[in-house]
Each structure stands twice: as structure tokens, then as C-alpha cells.
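Protocol check, entry for the methods section draft. Step 1: assemble the input record (protein sequence plus ligand SMILES). Step 2: submit for complex structure prediction. Step 3: store the C-alpha cells unaltered in the notebook. Ligand used here: zinc ion. Step 1 record:
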Amino acid sequence: MNTNSINTTQACFCGANCDFSSCCQPYINKEMLVQTAEQLMRSRFSAYALGNAQYIYDTYAKSSQAAQSVENIDDWSKACVWIALKVYPVVNNVNNTTEQFVEFSAFYIINNTLCELREKSRFILEESMSPTITENTEVKEQLSLNAPLKQWRYIDGDIISHSELANIKRNDLCPCNHYPTAWQSKKGKKFKHCCGK
Ligand SMILES: [Zn+2]
Ligand SMILES: [Zn+2]
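Step 3, stored output:
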């Protein structure tokens, strides 16, 4: 799915109570820089939902990028339907300005199975002067004025649980109905007419 086909007044993929256009879209389009680890985490989930592998790759910490490839991220993001995100209340981030943790559950469907991945992710503030950060002129000016600029990046995470919640039949109510998702226009549909397509 590409962002141009998205109705930008729809709820954001990340489940925050706001429109995609005023939530994760400006980060994914590289028109704005994230201010917090949680914003980065949310925007990375939305990028998974959209299949924007380049954004996911670019927001890995440098030390983690070597183990990744845009192609592998692309395959994984598109093999799943990313239906919802739940972010848990923050703990132990007090006074930590260079490393933060965000714990979340990502709900996704693969092979007609609803899965939950619960992870505690670690984010670091990293100097990012790489030209891959942005093509946006205003952001570029901001970068050169405030150099060196530090940006939140995803470095690694501990998987707390990874479980299969349900096997979904074609005529079941689509599981996305049980979560706050971006797919609200499809509300009430059967799986086969919704995320199962
Ligand atoms: Zn969002
Ligand atoms: Zn659905």
C-alpha cells in the first residue's frame, strides 16, 4: 500500500486517537523529525502497516542496520496485515535522555492466524547526519543549522511473548473490529471481505 492511496483523515494505524495526517504520516514522509522514542515506535508500526520498508530501515540505529535489509523488511511487512498496536505505559525512562524503552503489542494476521507480538524495544539517541534522513528542504536546513543533530533510532528489543491468538475463518467477523485501527471504513465486515482479502 502506498501513502498516496490512503485517506489521510482516517485514524492513524498506530491506534493513537488522531488522524494519520497529523500523527505518523509527517514522520514517514520525512517532513518532520520525531521528538520521542514512542513517536518513532508508533511511526515504525504505521510504516509496517503501509509496507514502507525504507522508513523502517532508515530508523534502525546504525549498529543494527548491518543485520537488516530493505528487501527482508519489505517481505515481512507485506506478508502480514498489521491490524493494531497497543503501547503500554512507560516505565524506567525517567532522566534517561539518550536511551528509552517502549513496550508494546503489535497485532497482525499471517496465514489466517491472528498473532500478538509483545516486545520491549530499546531506542537510542544517535547522531544522524546521513543524507538518507530526509529529502525535505526545510528539514535539511534545520539539520545544517543545528548540527550535529540527534535522532531517536530503534536499536533492539526483548520479545516478551509471541503468540497465536486465533485462527480466523473466512466468515468470522474480522478481528480488526476489536481494535482501534485505521481500517474503520471496513467496520463490521467479515474477514473474507476485510483483512482476509
Ligand atoms: Zn500514528
Ligand atoms: Zn479487518
